[in-house]
Amino acid sequence: MHRPRFDGSFEGWRSEARRLLQAGIAPHQVDWTPDAGLFDSLAPAPADAPGATVRIPRELPELLVQAARFRQQDRWALLYRVLWRAARGDRSAMLPGDRDGAELHRRLKAVRREAHHLHAFLRFRPGQAQRGEPDYLAWIEPAHEVLDLAAEHFVPRMGRHSWLIATPDGVACFNGERLAYLPPGPPGLQAAIEERDDPDQSLWQAYYRSTFNPARLNPKVMRGHMPARFWRHLPEGPLIPALVSAARTGQQRLAQAPAVGAQDGKTVLISPLKAQPVREATSALERCQACPRWHAATCAVAGQGPETADVMVLGSQPSDQDDLSGQPFSDPAGICLREALANAGLARERLYFTHAVKHFAWHSQGLRSEREALPVTEAELTACAPWLEAELQQVRPRLVIALGDGARAALRGFIPPHLAEHGGEVLETNQAPFGAWFAIPWPAGNDTLEALARRAAQWLAPLSGSDDPDRLPRLPGTARH
Predict the structure, then answer these.
(1) Residue 56: CA atoms inside 13 Å, Cβ hemisphere, count?
(2) What's the distance, CA 75 to chain centroid?
(3) CATH number of this structure's domain 292-464
(4) Cα separation of 350 and 310, whole Å?
(5) Which residue has the higher pLDDT, 204 or 274?
(6) pLDDT category of residue 171 using cuts at 50, 70 and 90
(7) Uracil-DNA glycosylase-like domain location, by residue (predicted)?
(8) What is the mean pLDDT of residues 14-30?
(9) What residues does 118 pair with on adjacent strands?
């Protein structure tokens, strides 16, 4: 059994491992125990083989350097096994799926995590410049040899300040320009650093106590992210056990309640301008379910306009925009029609807008497609006829402009049958609650707004008996009932 003797450093192990590897000594023939017993039988040291050449993968040395930081008694034996196998072409020893490779990568991960812990949980204390000490001092006890791996992290973050980080394995010292690594300090170094007063410790404790949330306490997860061995190095460390214990019994929540209750409340000024308006009670039209159209509709679209209007504009059904806004003719085509009527000399107080049916029925081809209107059926016109009749009896307009086939069909119950098919001219009727009616085809959706405005002006021109759409005189022979 071969027992190599070296100083316990990676450089010493590498020198011995190279010598053993060149001599062909297998891993099971080597005992890497640091201290050999007095009566241990030592095999003669293998002679150097200057002609032997050892070839290993290029990435293996860096893996071995980092894994050597893992503090465990068999670390040198594992490194030599991996080196032995890789030197003989077995690259699987470096992979996580291999037994030795899995242990190697587990230790690499532990080393990286310990370096992160040193970054996160190291706390500096102010030094005494008059005694020649660095500006900041810190003591920490990492589980693995990661001081030289983690100390570079603090160089750019501390600026030109000098600092010293002491561990049981060594000391990292920065003088503001150069980072140096020194052997372990004297035995009293730890006590000397931890006894220094930190003027900001009370501030840290107050901050941690106020931000600690007992409702989200998970001690197991907390210890996984912040191991308990680091608590004594943190300013808030002494508070953690007491806060955890109080959170389990609910004492902290009870202690916070009186402090919150003693605080002065905020005065809220009540302004009637910011008050929400009282919603009116639903009307009979909003509760109407006489036809299936109410299932998919957002709301019932009631007529809009004064009861003394001279002209009633009657559409077939509300549009998609009307269904969302709750107002008739609020879509682009309806807005253009309103502008055309205004340009024709009809003021807003002389117009009443409504539809033959009051709900919007639609279908779509997919989730992102537009809602397409369904045609109005005869049954739906019959179901909505009482609402239209009530509007006609209430407004009693001089003229009804029927837009589209659905609107003209809705007027069949109020005009003689021989006049129901006419629509290109103004037809007077004294048997209905309106003086005259005029039917026009409602433009298709492909018409532009400009074309719609021109057509609306042309529709109104016959009503005046001339080609001038700027005025609408009173129609002869039409009187209010």
Answers:
(1) 21
(2) 45
(3) 3.40.470.10
(4) 5
(5) 204
(6) very high
(7) 302-460
(8) 92
(9) none
Q: pTM of the prediction?
A: 0.49
Angle between helices 251-261 and 239-249 (to 10 degrees): 90
C-alpha 235/C-alpha 56 separation (Å) is: 47
In the numeric block, which tokens belong to residue 46? 């293998």
Three-state secondary structure call for residue 133: coil
Q: Is the pLDDT of residue 41 over 60?
A: no
Determine phi and psi for 398, rounding to 5 degrees: -75, -30
Please give the span between the terminal C-alpha atoms of the chain, in angstroms, as a whole number. Answer: 125
With b for 16 or more beta-carbon neighbours within 10 A and e for fewer, the 179-188 pattern comes to eeeeeebeee
Beta strands in 273-398 (DSSP E): 311-315, 351-355, 362-363, 372-373
Nearest Cα to Cα of residue 296 among 280, 281, 314, 317? 317
- pLDDT for the residue 426: 53
Structure tokens at 424: 């290109």
Tell me the C-alpha distance between 360 and 372, whole Å. 10
At residue 364, the pLDDT reads 78
d(C-alpha 315, C-alpha 325), whole Å: 16
Q: Are strands 427-428 and 125-126 parallel, antiparallel or unpaired?
A: unpaired
For every residue of 416-481, DSSP letters joined together read -GGGTT--SS-EE-SSSSSSEEEEEPPPPTTS-HHHHHHHHHHHHGGGGTSS-TT--PPPTT----
| Sequence spans of domains, the chain | 10-117, 122-194, 201-254, 292-464
Say how far residue 386 (Cα) sits from the centre of its chain: 51
pLDDT digits 0-9 by tens, 394-403: 998 888 888 8
pLDDT confidence band for 422 (50 / 70 / 90): low
Residues 214, 255: Cα–Cα separation, whole Å: 12
Q: What is the helix (H) or strand (E) element at residue 359, kind and residue range? A: none
* Per-residue tokens: 344: 């024709």
Determine the residue type at 101. G
